[in-house]
Amino acid sequence: MFSNTLRLAWQLHHQEKGSVYNRSLRWIQSILMVFIVTLSLTSESVQDYLNNNLQNLLGADLVLSQSHPLSQAQWAELKGLSKNAINTQQITATLTHNGQWQRATLKAVGEDYPLQGEMKTSSALGEEAVSTAVVPAEGEIWLDPRLLSSLSVDMGDTLMIAQQAFIVSRVLHHEPDRLMEGHNVDMRALINRNDLPGLNVADDNMHYRYLVLASKSQTHAIINWQKTHLPAARIHHKQGAHPLALFWKRTENFIGLASVVLFFMAAIAIQQIAQVKMKKEQFFTAVCLSLGASRASGVQIALIKWVLSILSMLPAVVFFCTLCHWLIVQWLASNLIQLEWQFSLSRFIEPLLASMLIFAVFQAPVWMALKQSSVRQLVYNSHNKGSALVSIGCALLVLVGVAATYSDNGLLTVMVLGAMLSCVALMLLSSWVSLTLGEKLTSRHSGLVPFALFMMKQRLLTKTTQILGVGLCAFLLLFTLMLLRDIGNTMQGYKRQHDGNLMVSQASEAQMRDVILWADEHGAELRQSKPFMHAKLIAVNQQRLEDFADKPSGSLATLQSAIRLHWTDVVPHNNRVVEGTWWQPSEPDWQQISVEEEVMSDLGLQLGDRLTFYIGEQSVEFTIAASHVYTPGAGSITFWIQMPPSALSHLQAPRYYMASLELAPSAFTRLSDLWQAHPSLRMVPMKEMIARFDNLLAMVTRVVSGFALLIISLAGIVIVSSVHALEANERKKNSVIMSFGLSRGTCLRVNGIEWLTTALIAAAGAIMGTWVAGLLIYQSQFSMNYQPDVPWLLTTLAIIVLVVMALGLIASRTSLNSSIRDLMQE
Amino acid sequence: MPLSTNSQIELTNVSQSFETQQHQVVLFQDLNLSIQQGQSYAIMGPSGSGKSSLLMLASGLEKPTQGKATYLTNEQVQPLEALRKDIGFIFQQFHLLPELDALNNVALPLKLRGQKGAEQKARQWLEKVGLGHRLTHKPKQLSGGEQQRVAIARALVFEPRFIFADEPTGNLDAVSAKEVTEILFSCCKEHGAGLVLVTHSEALAEQAESLLMFKDGQCSWIRQSNQEPCHVQ
Ligand SMILES: Nc1ncnc2c1ncn2[C@@H]1O[C@H](COP(=O)(O)OP(=O)(O)O)[C@@H](O)[C@H]1O
Ligand SMILES: [Mg+2]
Hints:
The structure holds two protein chains of two kinds. Chain A is of the alpha+beta class. Chain B has helices at about 50-60, 100-110, 120-130, 145-155, 175-190, 200-205; strands at about 10-20, 25-35, 40-45, 65-75, 75-80, 85-90, 160-165, 195-200, 210-215, 220-225. Chain B has a six-stranded mixed β-sheet with strand order 6-7-8-3-9-10, sandwiched between helices. A four-stranded antiparallel β-sheet of chain B has the order 2-1-4-5, with helices on one face.
């Protein structure tokens, strides 16, 4: 019995697979599957890589790092808890040579380095790297190849760092303890530990890393010891997670969230296709019923056909996923060195099953409508349209499901979904208003335009979905392109206006004094200068941070290392208090802070919560008294967490400054004087920052373009499937028009007018949406005045209209091929 | 206002056949037929014998495989394609546009041609077919007979010289069929339009001035008001 059903379903599947609605459905499902599976494969590759990275690049079983050295007693305790331990120190410094400069990580090691693994070096650029058991002798420095070429130094040259001479003696290729390889692409240099005191960098911004060999149980003992004795230290070990794992999880989540747009478009297209499919499936089931078969077998056949069609797609889907995955891995490999592509069929299973579940929910209304089919439909030649509520409910279920799966940040989710929803509402409203008005205004007139408008108004629902599909797609494209373009253009001028052309991101008090002296000497103007100290959040309401917040978020990722704590009596000009009250200058209570709003929402903090920070070498508890947000227009230096200055007398920790300056172009060449004296001074010319920003922008543009390609293909499918949903009606309409003695050209013109109207409304909606979004977002996020580029917008409008019309007419060509003969044969 | 009645469709020695995968289907051969404006013609015959095909051919929408089809109007001989704008159709399934009410369905041909006063003229026609009180009803709200009456008004409203009707009463009960038949014939007569109709109904065929019969692959006149016999092979 079942094998008969199966055979019949197989036969029907073969017969129907060429039909337009099945083809459109296959396209939609394939595109979504390729998207979901590729995202999941890529994410797994990256997580694998990070795991592998952790195993290979720790250079030890456990690494403990903090910003000040262990005391004698602590060092002895750590050694006692482990098989062996060594220490290294590292600092971010700017090296100079002949007026050129380059930021690099300077690492100082002793004879006992490396602890685990091998160091690779060569005697000159271009020569093969060999494993090396010695470390740089005193007075020597080893540079990595990129640093060598960016400073244009050769083997044997002398580098001056803080009045101390170093001879460049080897090329450094690989150190085994470079855990952060994937993330930290800083250039690197290696020196002997004994040279460090001469550099005068003392404690400011020095990083102390302790590499430890330990068994599993020792590792756990050390972790417990760290929790009680060194709560602000960071620990990485081979049993734990990579520090970047959360960051990648978040990236995946963001892309997943953005895919809600794809699913929305797919829902529109599938809804159109379902109208046709429902009719055909119901007809078939009704015929089965009239031939004495059970209703169940009709439903069974529909289900089996669906499974067959999905299975038939799989080879192509697997192929394209593999291809996309391979391409993305190649692309990422420039950032994640040694990321490798691997094929594994088993990894396809989970995302494929997930997407099949999604499609099944999309199809559910069709199957549900089958339950209502009856022989009556054959007698009256009618069909049941199915419940609109059910199809909307199913589509919503999918969208909510996708959003919930990928949502890790309430604020972001609400913003992304809110923007989309308002855009949809805007399009709906504008298509309803313009069609209704157009129809009302022309109803008294004769001619093709009134007729076309009238027919569109009659088919408002289908037309609106078409307009929505096209318009949403156009909006997204326009907006992202415009945003990227404008931000790129405006950033430079804007930053300069408020921040000057040189940013000092971290200077100790001594360094800051010299910076100010240097600025006076070279006629540079100090624009902003704000003090801070480092603080590491270790607990919230006495609960350890790791236990308090476990959802990945941008804030949490940053809070895992020390953040910058600013003090001020008055609310900074570029901040605004949104919740709670800021302290008065003379208040005796110094244990209160203000926390940035997004951090509050990411971590789920509330006013009155108590945060414990590790500052210097003491832990201090603060109560959240206020929450602030950044307001643009008064400089970009802002802090997540701020406290009253009265707290300073209770805290022992080095103080630093962030500052910005405006320099004459000629003064830039004199910057190396400052770095000569203070290699660890963190200072970036705006030009370099903009170059970094441009790189980021280029990467984002590539991702957006790839995404746009998916959106465009889905919009195309929306058009084709909506045309197909109305095809029977359209054919009839065209034949009837011809039976009035009018020509095929008239039909074509009516059709052209319909598509022109559709395209115009969609494009106008998209441009309106872009305009509004531009006004709102530019104002609130970047404080820029949005000045739309009218010729650019009009050109895009024209392109959208032309493309949509062409696509629409091509999709309608079957219905334009109708003839009066069709009306005679029923 | 009746039209000038001097147009004529001339089919000379036409044959129609279709190539299917294996064999050739021959519907008719060397058929001679002259259709005069103002006259009525009925075509009868079993299903699949080629009646609809003959309609397509006579209306100039399809070309015969052999033979000549011409259109004589205002003493000019033109190819049959020139007939396009002078003909209206009526179908078994009515084929009113479901989105439009009765008035707009009838006004549609005029509106598409950009004519003024379309709705007023449509209203007059609907009154003529006895539906003056149902102007705003959608096709779904009308019975079959009423729908066909709307279709007749729609086919005649733009004053074509010829009406082609393919089984116009095939979907109707006897009473409605009778009403529709009467309206169809009287309207065509009144406006001087030639009527060519395909039917299975003897009663309907009776009303036509000429009657052409397809039978056993043969085609012959049963009754003929004019000269111009139909030669049969
Ligand atoms: N384009 C075509 N190709 C092949 N066969 C056709 C074509 N058009 C009509 N026929 C065949 O011609 C025969 C006559 O059709 P038709 O004129 O519709 O018959 P009737 O209207 O008398 O029932 C049918 O068997 C039909 O299948
Ligand atoms: Mg027929």
